[in-house]
Amino acid sequence: MLKVVVAFVVFSLVFFAFAGGMLFQRFVVAEEPGNGRASQAVAAQADGGTNVDGPQAFEEAWNLVQEQYVQPELIDDAAMLEAAVDGMLDTLQDEGHTRYLTEAENQASEQQLSGEYVGVGINVQETEQGITVVAPIDNSPAMDAGIRPGDILTSVDGVDVAGRQVGEVINTVRGEEGTQVTLTFRREGEPQPLTFTLTRSRIETSSVSWTMLDGNVALIRLSQFTSTSGDDMVVALREATDAGAEGVIFDLRNNPGGYISQAVQIGSLFVPDGSTIFISQFRDGSQEPYVATEQPVNIGDLPLVVLINEGAASSSEIVSGAIKANNPNATILGEQTFGTGTVLSSFDLGEDGGTILLGTELWLTPDGKLIKNFGIKPDVVVPMQEGQFPFIPVDNAGPPPDDLSDYQLEWAFDMLQGAETPS
Length: 423
Hints:
3 domains, six-stranded antiparallel beta sheet, Pdz3 Domain
């Protein structure tokens, strides 16, 4: 049985996080959008003599709709603009990455990377029973109200959530600070549903959580590369090593990415100083390597297993690729990653409040391999078994069950223990 001492709270990607309202996507972004090489790329495109008839044709089509369409009451300017820009960006074959964000979506994206959000403070996992609470976040409205691990969400503001996507439900739960939302749960042992009316508040979270398993194996999970992830990872790795960790499992599964600077900092914790973390390739074909920087703590010679899957993308691929190329004590285990290989820069579109996240750089692994459309291949291929989900260490969730229902984690644990791998 794996014994657990949980240290940090994590809010996790789509299927494993509620957090009162976040939609996670696969991405890598720069901290200073619209500057540097990104602006040069846009200037180069403008100077390159692209089809000047495009804007004119768009304007003519727009005016035709405004002036001639038979049902003018159905004309929605905002919807037409969003659809037009979306359609243009879809032709760039940067699926799930280059995209258009409305003002609301842009605000949610920025909030998502800030390490805080407005919500009610619930971590959930999608199970066969439905959207199930893993744990309420410390000092959150959900904890204060008495919501417990294992509670199953059945409705939001009286609307049944059965069969709905987690992302859709998240959108209905999040809202403005100070507003209320009513959640109804089914709890084992309770004959009637339990209903809680909660006031949304601003909650600070960490994308890092860790726990010590049997055999002094530390499990460190990173759910996203937010603005504080690097520093939080430093704390987690230091605490794990101070607690006597003799091996580390670093879980990047379902991590969609985030800030490049955080990827460099976090990668630097697991490879020797001066190692290449990744290589950036620009529009003109020139390249620039990013190297590991000295950090307050480093994994050193400790055995390491990195867990990846098809939900790991962007910054997760940068870090796992760096570890694979530079750490001889590491094993990459799981399934091939998503294959997102463009760095996004953000460009605002005038007064409408929309933003284009545009791929302005390609990135390569330290050994020069393109990741876009290829991903990172694990050293040991271990598919997750049907009906299982990654185990998430979360405060107040209690010890894990005897059966973790996480085949990849069990395999990684046995590998570090030198035991026979699960059959």
